[in-house]
């Protein structure tokens, strides 16, 4: 029998050799593609052992789709000083034809339409208020007009009518699309296609080692944030995620660091400095452009960290982004009026042309979402913000910062009730605040002073919970407390930004309300 087996193998040796040769070559090809360290690596089909194995600790945050004003205290802003102008490339070596008929066709058209924008329109400064107290370094900084048109300054509109749980479920897919879009923009402006489409790496689940707590006291965090403040915000965020987001999301200082990164470095103040309001509209869009990357990356991080201290801090920042997006949409509707009244000379400027294109870009989307006015925006965004806060309240671990969650929910309800003259919403706000004394104390309560002021006012009135029983002067007092609750924080923020970003060389700084 043994001789028979050997005879069979000998007679069919060529077939066996051919089979093993084919299998080994296919295996080698698939392995070579999938073991690449490039963030833009190609991924072919194959058995699980061929794919790069990553610990869950990395994937949860990197997910390797790509590289790792107006009203006081809430107006936003600016791009970092020293950024080079975009849009000079003509996409000469870019194969735009391959995107025809795809989801990126309009993007490529926008890229072509903005490639000579600065050559076609004037970038002049007029009606500057010499007594505004705003530094020339702020007034004449670079603004990313091309990106305001091409990228997404209103990234929350598309899903504004969806429940927040849907946003969490689709966060990783949205981040993938976001990074693929940025890759196409980068390639167009370089004029070549040096990197293949972004693909997601496969992670090995269930074998992640325990994460260590981050130890970084407030003083050290401040030094890091001061050092990186002038960097482009996308670069700051990428560096932060790659260096720090692998630490334990519940223990240590990571949750505080996420909060500080957003509120100290990525959220900025806007300054009105001209009699022409189009400048302020552009600055507001500039800041919301910078919010997009944070929103996409942190929403994806949230999907993996919901129910942790860090996840709770991310939810607070996302709710704040929706609040600021409300004001950005107000600027959108104001800009429509500016455009109607613009003079022929103003229409030849870079900022008015940018506003015109932004208005056209979002016109149909806003109609589809039934956002026809500032009133519609307020109602839709208040509802979404309540949804975000309710998610925070239900998911925060061991009541971490739950008092701030209830305070902010009451604040959104009060502001909505004031805007709509709805006493039912005002009463619901009071009832929400009245629940705070019975909540656990875990973590910071940043709104404690404002809350105590409101409670003292309500106690003096007999602990009323029905807004119809409140005199108008008391309602005005609550409104004032809410509006000025961040005054001290924002004054410190302004002083820091003036010192590090917008220094005045020739005249003393003059404080302004913005």
Model description:
With 514 residues, the chain is mainly α. Among the domains are: 234 residues, no CATH class; 79 residues, no CATH class. 59% of the residues lie in helices and 0% in strands. The protein has 22 helices and no strands. Helix 9 packs across helix 13 and helix 14 packs across helix 16. It is globular. The protein starts with a helix and ends in a 14-residue tail after the last helix. The C terminus is likely disordered.
How is this structure best summarized?
The chain has 514 residues and is mainly alpha-helical. Helix content is 59%, strand content 0%. Among the domains are: 151-197 and 214-400, no CATH class; 418-440 and 448-503, no CATH class.
Keywords:
22 helices; disordered C terminus; 514 residues; mainly alpha
What topology emerges from the helices and strands here?
Blueprint: H1 2-11, H2 13-34, H3 56-62, H4 105-114, H5 117-120, H6 136-139, H7 145-150, H8 164-169, H9 171-190, H10 218-228, H11 233-244, H12 254-266, H13 278-305, H14 309-341, H15 344-347, H16 350-368, H17 374-395, H18 402-420, H19 423-433, H20 448-460, H21 472-484, H22 487-500
Transmembrane segments: 12-33
Region (Disordered): 71-95, 192-219
Keywords: Membrane, Transmembrane, Transmembrane helix
């Amino acid at each position: 029998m043994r001789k028979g087996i050997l005879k069979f193998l000998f007679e069919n040796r060529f077939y066996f050799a051919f089979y093993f040769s084919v299998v080994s070559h296919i295996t080698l090809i698939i392995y070579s593609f999938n073991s690449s360290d490039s963030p833009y690596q190609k991924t072919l089909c194959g058995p699980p052992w061929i794919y790069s194995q990553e610990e869950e600790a990395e994937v949860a945050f990197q997910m390797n789709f790509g590289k790792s004003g107006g009203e006081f205290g809430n107006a936003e802003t600016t791009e970092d000083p020293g950024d080079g102008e975009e849009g000079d490339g003509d996409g000469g070596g870019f194969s735009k034809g391959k995107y025809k008929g795809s989801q990126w066709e309009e993007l490529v058209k926008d890229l072509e339409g903005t490639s000579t924008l600065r050559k076609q329109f004037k970038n002049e400064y007029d009606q500057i208020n010499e007594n505004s107290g705003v530094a020339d370094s702020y007034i004449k900084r670079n603004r990313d007009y091309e990106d305001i048109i091409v990228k997404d300054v209103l990234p929350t509109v598309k899903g504004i009518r969806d429940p927040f749980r849907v946003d969490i479920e689709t966060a990783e897919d949205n981040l993938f699309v976001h990074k693929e879009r940025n890759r196409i923009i980068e390639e167009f402006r370089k004029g070549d296609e040096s990197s293949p489409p972004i693909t997601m790496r496969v992670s090995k689940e269930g074998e992640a080692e325990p994460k260590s707590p981050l130890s970084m006291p407030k003083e050290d965090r401040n030094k890091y944030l001061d050092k990186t403040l002038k960097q482009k915000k996308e670069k700051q965020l990428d560096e932060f995620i790659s260096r720090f987001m692998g630490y334990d999301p519940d223990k240590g200082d990571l949750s505080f660091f996420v909060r500080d990164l957003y509120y100290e470095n990525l959220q900025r103040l806007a300054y009105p400095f001209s009699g022409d309001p189009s400048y302020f509209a552009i600055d507001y869009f500039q800041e919301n452009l910078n919010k997009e990357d944070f929103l996409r990356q942190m929403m994806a991080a949230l999907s993996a960290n919901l129910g942790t201290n860090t996840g709770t801090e991310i939810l607070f920042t996302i709710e704040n982004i929706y609040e600021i997006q409300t004001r950005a949409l107000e600027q959108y509707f104001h800009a429509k009026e500016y455009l109607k009244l613009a003079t022929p000379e103003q229409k030849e400027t870079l900022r008015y042309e940018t506003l015109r294109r932004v208005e056209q870009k979002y016109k149909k989307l806003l109609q589809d979402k039934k956002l026809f006015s500032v009133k519609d925006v307020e109602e839709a965004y208040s509802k979404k913000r309540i949804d975000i806060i309710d998610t925070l309240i239900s998911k925060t671990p061991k009541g971490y910062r739950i008092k701030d969650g209830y305070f902010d929910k009451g604040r959104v309800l009060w502001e909505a009730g004031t805007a709509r003259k709805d006493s039912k919403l005002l009463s619901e706000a009071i009832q929400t605040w009245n629940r705070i004394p019975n909540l656990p104390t875990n973590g910071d309560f940043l709104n404690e002073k404002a809350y105590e002021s409101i409670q003292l006012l309500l106690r003096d009135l007999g602990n009323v919970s029905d807004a119809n029983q409140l005199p108008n002067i008391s309602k005005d007092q609550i409104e004032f407390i809410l509006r000025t609750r961040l005054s001290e924080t924002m004054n410190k923020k302004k002083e820091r930004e003036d010192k590090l970003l917008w220094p005045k060389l020739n005249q003393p700084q003059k404080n302004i309300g913005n």
